[in-house]
Amino acid sequence: MKQKERIVRALEQFSTAMLAALGYLPAAGLVLAAGALLASAGLGSVAPVLRWEPLALAGSLAYDGMMAIIQNLSVVFCVGIAAFLARKEKQQAAIIALLSYLVFLTAGHTTLEQMGRLAAPDPALGMYGTGQAVVLGIQTVDMGVTGGILLGFLTGWVYNRTSGKTFRPAPLRIYGGVRWSFLCMTGLSAVLGLAACFVWPPVQRAVDGLTGWIAAAGETGLFLYGFLERVLIPTGLHHLIYIPFQFTSLGGTLTVGNQVYTGAYAVMMGEYSLGLPFSDGIRWMYIGFTKTFGYFGIVGAFIFCARPENRRRTAAMLTPLLLTASLASVTEPLDFLFCFLSPVLWLAHGVIAGAFMVLLDLCGVTAFTGGLVSSFAMNLSAGAASTHYPLLYLLAAAQIAVYFVVFTLLIRTFDLRTPGREQPAPAVPPAAPEDRFPFHALVAALGGRGNIARVDNCLTRLRVWVEDPGLLDRKALRELSPDGLTCQGREVQLVFGFDAEQLRRQLDVVLEKTALSPPV
Fold first, then answer.
1. Strands, sheet with 452-457, edge to edge from the N-terminal-most edge strand
2. What whole-number distance in Å separates Cα of residue 166 and Cα of residue 176?
3. Cα separation, 272 vs 251, whole angstroms
4. CA 278 → CA 149, 186, 248, 283, 365, distances in Å?
5. How far apart are CA 109 and CA 253, in angstroms?
6. Dist CA 19 CA 440 (whole Å)
7. Helix or strand or coil: residue 454?
């Protein structure tokens, strides 16, 4: 039983740490969606005012600025997770995580350079398809967000165990505390960066080797193509699935006079510009279909399954991310809300995406699918006879419905912790205007200031570790947090909804003042 409790608590800590690192993405998604609308060439043809240079510049600044965050989610995870896991001086853990991440990237780059394995960027594709990426200006093995997540958890774990280290000899005292944590992480980051150069490439080659089989396997291969393109997103390996089809001869070729178009993307655009019928190679471009339409069903299920009192907040949080996915085909902010926390949903997501790619192909749809506004404008200009776009939108409605039904059933059957399904926030008892919450009563219920060892919070819960659980006044704690109290050993969790972080900060101030007060 104790082993089971430890596993559950570890999984809970993992999920809350992941969510803490994603806290800014709803706001970033709102700005990104606005930028995508202002900078949209397709929308500009409908609303000429968007062609005004100041508006176009504002749109590009908003879009590119937020994309810089999306493209560097690995470092966001690394710093955010480490800071969340740190028990004290979280800003120090965040700084150490950032420095460690730079060491990790540089160790990978140096290893590749010394071994003569640095990939040369393609003039058209850059580093895509090479298995390497340029992150923060450093070329290294492309691990997607996996490297940042691993390093974030490692930094938090090491920091909590080494930041209290002291050295007695005077010359060595300066290397104690957080500096000792940094020195430990420097060595571990270098080892992790070096190991990535040997461990990750074989995984990449195995994924890359699937592409030949996918191309020859008909509808089965097309399903696997769509499934893997979604499922592999957290690892960064999805690039190795779609790049060969969209930008090499594996996706088809088109010769018109002396002009040769190679890859599904180039062939599709060539046929569009020349007014030619679309060829079968357009099937490899269907990955935009789920990005544009499917996430409406996913977000609808999340909102529908949220607790009634949380639905408006959940909708406000997810709507900007939905617009980002549908308008700009940037799905990572939504993906990372559930890919690690609900693997069942993530696998179902891949299955549905792959299945609808097969349906599009079987129904003979040859329409543009990437980006709601741009695809609609291009389909209208290409014509229904060439694209069969009316059928596209019928299938889009069907996919939205399938996502909504399947996700709703899975969420409710397995009681999955999707956004908005937290415990209801209790009504705050009346308190003095200067307090807004009876923190002193909470401290007393927790056994007094001396019994409180550590205070933290996740997205919706105040988490307190106490020295002696026997001193807890559980009746008083339940009154302060009705229907939202759990006590497991030395850990106490009080549910306050989205106000948890603000209450934790106020409690920190109260505890600091109480600690400085003379004993009674």
1. 452-457, 461-466, 491-495, 485-488
2. 5
3. 16
4. 42, 53, 17, 10, 10
5. 35
6. 29
7. strand
Task: For the chain, give the percent of residues with pLDDT over 70.
Answer: 89
Which among 293, 314, 317 is positioned nearest to 401, based on CA atoms? Answer: 293
In this structure, what DSSP letter does residue 144 have? T
CA distance 424 to 391: 43
Q: Residue 350 belongs to what H/E stretch?
A: helix 343-362
Q: How far apart are CA 191 and CA 220, in angstroms?
A: 40
Q: pLDDT tens-digit profile of 396-437?
A: 999 999 999 999 999 999 998 888 886 554 444 444 433 467
Instruction: Supply the angle between the helices 343-362 and 389-413 in degrees, to the nearest 10.
Output: 160
R_g over Cα of the chain: 26
Quick one: tokens of 278? 């679309």
- Return the DSSP state at 429: P
Q: How far apart, in whole angstroms, are the C-alpha atoms of residue 265 and residue 514?
A: 65
Catalytic sites, residue numbers: 458
**Residue 320: both structure tokens together:** 């900007």
Which residues make beta-bridge pairs with 456?
Answer: 463
Range 300-334 burial, b when 16+ CB lie within 10 A, else e? bbbbebbeeebeebbbebbbbbbbbbbbbbbbbbb
3-state SS assignment for residue 102: helix
60: left (phi over 0), alpha (psi -120 to 50) or beta: alpha
Q: Which of 149, 147, 123, 127 is nearest to 139 (CA)?
A: 127
How many residues in the chain?
520
Burial class (CB in 10 A: 0-12, 13-18, 19+), 194: middle
Under a CB-based contact definition with an 8 Å cutoff, are residues 362 and 330 in contact? no
Task: Write out the two tokens for 459.
Answer: 């997205």
Rounded to two decimals, the pTM is: 0.70
User: How many other C-beta atoms lie within 10 A of the C-beta of residue 190?
Assistant: 18
DSSP letter for each residue of 479-491: HHSTT-EEEETTE
Phi, psi of 93 (to 5 degrees): -65, -40
Instruction: Please choose, from the candidates 228, 295, 232, 288, the residue with its C-alpha nearest in 3D space to the C-alpha of residue 264.
Output: 288
CB atoms within 10 A of CB 113: 12
In tens, the pLDDT along 286-302 reads 999 999 999 999 999 99
Q: What is the 8-class DSSP label of residue 121?
A: P
| Mean pLDDT for all residues in the chain | 85
